[in-house]
């Protein structure tokens, strides 16, 4: 049975309104004006393709279901689908959890682009099949319903917002925007119009979905059977409560003996530098991790110099910072969401691994002897691994990986890592132990238990003592053992 032209008209009108109001409207008004997300060059291509499809659908409601309009709709949709694949190919093969820009329901926007255009093409195919042997003719070319007019009004409003965003943030021709865009702002001193990035050919790629749960460092799952046979227990020396300015769950700690300062990170993207007594915050910044290399759920920090640290997220993205009393927060608008003077960013990127590719991490260490950054995987229900990875501090690429020789029944949840000479000390969260590992053999040779820490989240060596970080919302503390 052939569908009536009036029914087709209303369905196409609703589809056009949904397309312009939801993906285009949400991206522009909510993510853009609301959250400060500025589209990159490829994002603008994808958004333009959606606008063209919505416009073609409006032409169909006005002039009827004509072959030229269907051809144009399919052409624009194929272009949009290609743009989505092109965009995703830059990021979709990265390590688990990594991406570019904000994620919606755990999926980054460039992946949603592919879903949207696949739905459009399927919609067009079903619509054509329901036409039978002949396309419906427009019954009354002068008749336009309230729904049709509402669709046009929504289209014009969303287009208006996009025009303002495009001109103010990207600029007129020949400016084409940025491949790594800054946050949206109407401050003329912070707006950047750029011609530095013109499209270049790139290979396409795709990957399947990952189903590995991200760690929640405030409520970590207990891992039974991860306890290693103990040596004598550590003696508790003292506990220092961290300043109240550190409000999130502290997830990593490191100490610089030469400068007598600590660095502490929290799961809500704050990095704090503290004095040697841990009773005063010297400087703090909140990493802007949503609109460039995506950095969230900070988990590790390690001093690689007297005042410089590397900070890692659970998915192995990282940012390198330096404590510098002369640095101004106003000079780092594009990098930090909030904070104080005294911190500058040196580098931001992502570690890529092989054996640890499908595992998150809960710690970061610095091997001064080999000048390497060191990570240890967290256990997972699928693709379970217990791997140590070493990265060069020269090019930040993977130097080596190895499976850790584990004497326990199951892999431990390592949430802290400290390295001294040829030994690495791993913080076993569930068993409340410090595991001693020989770096040359990657074997765990001893274990030391401790008490009095409910959520051990970081480990540092301070003048021959173990400093164990206890992560608790607004009540973070450091306990010292020997």
Automatic annotation (TrEMBL):
UniProt KW Membrane keyword: yes
GO molecular function: protein-disulfide reductase activity
Keyword set, alphabetical order: Membrane, Transmembrane, Transmembrane helix
GO biological process terms held by the UniProt record: protein folding
Subcellular locations according to the entry: Membrane
InterPro entries in the cross-refs: DiS_bond_form_DsbB/BdbC, DsbB-like_sf
Membrane topology qualifier: Multi-pass membrane protein
Any single Gene Ontology cellular-component annotation: membrane
Keyword DNA-binding (UniProt): no
Family matches, as Gene3D superfamilies: DsbB-like
Primary location: membrane
Transmembrane segments: 12-35, 47-64, 69-85, 110-130, 151-168
Name of this chain's protein: Disulphide bond formation protein DsbB
Lineage: Bacteria, Pseudomonadati, Pseudomonadota, Gammaproteobacteria, Alteromonadales
């Amino acid at each position: 049975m052939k569908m009536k032209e009036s029914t087709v008209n209303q369905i196409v009108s609703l589809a056009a309104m949904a397309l312009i109001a939801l993906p285009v409207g949400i991206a522009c008004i909510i993510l853009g004006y609301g959250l400060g997300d500025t589209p990159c060059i490829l994002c603008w291509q994808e958004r333009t393709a959606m606008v063209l499809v919505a416009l073609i659908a409006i032409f169909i409601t006005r002039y009827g279901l004509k072959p030229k309009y269907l051809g144009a709709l399919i052409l624009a949709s194929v272009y949009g689908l290609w743009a989505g694949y092109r965009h995703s190919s830059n990021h979709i093969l990265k390590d688990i959890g990594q991406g570019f820009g904000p994620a919606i329901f755990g999926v980054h926007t460039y992946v949603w682009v592919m879903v949207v255009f696949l739905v459009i093409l399927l919609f067009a195919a079903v619509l054509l099949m329901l036409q039978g042997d002949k396309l419906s003719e427009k019954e009354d070319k002068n008749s336009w319903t309230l729904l049709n007019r509402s669709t046009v009004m929504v289209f014009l409003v969303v287009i208006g917002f996009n025009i303002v965003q495009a001109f103010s943030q990207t600029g007129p021709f020949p400016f084409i925007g940025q491949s790594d865009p800054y946050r949206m702002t109407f401050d003329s001193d912070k707006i950047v119009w750029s011609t530095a990035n013109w499209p270049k050919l790139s290979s396409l790629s795709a990957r399947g979905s990952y189903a590995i749960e991200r760690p929640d460092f405030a409520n970590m799952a207990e891992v039974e059977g991860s306890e290693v046979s103990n040596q004598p227990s550590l003696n508790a020396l003292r506990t220092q409560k961290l300043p109240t300015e550190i409000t999130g769950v502290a997830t990593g700690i490191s100490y610089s003996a030469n400068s007598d300062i600590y660095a502490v990170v929290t799961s809500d993207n704050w990095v704090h530098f503290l004095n040697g007594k841990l009773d005063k915050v010297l400087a703090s910044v909140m990493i802007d991790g949503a609109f460039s290399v995506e950095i969230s759920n900070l988990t590790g920090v390690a001093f690689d110099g007297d005042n410089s640290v590397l900070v890692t997220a659970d998915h192995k993205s990282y940012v390198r910072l330096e404590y510098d009393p002369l640095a101004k927060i106003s000079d780092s608008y594009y990098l930090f969401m909030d904070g104080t003077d005294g911190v500058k960013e040196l580098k931001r990127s992502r570690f890529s691994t092989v054996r640890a590719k499908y595992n998150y991490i809960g710690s970061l260490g610095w091997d001064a002897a080999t000048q390497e950054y060191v990570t240890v995987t967290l256990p997972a229900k699928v693709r379970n691994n217990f791997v140590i990875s070493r990265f060069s501090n020269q090019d930040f690429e993977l130097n080596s990986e190895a499976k850790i020789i584990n004497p326990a029944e199951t892999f431990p949840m390592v949430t802290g890592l400290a390295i001294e000479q040829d030994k690495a000390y791993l913080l076993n969260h569930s068993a409340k132990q410090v595991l001693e590992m020989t770096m040359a053999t990657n074997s765990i040779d001893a274990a030391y238990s401790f008490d009095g820490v409910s959520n051990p989240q970081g480990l540092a060596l301070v003048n021959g003592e173990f400093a164990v970080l206890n992560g608790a919302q607004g009540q973070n503390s450091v306990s010292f053992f020997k």
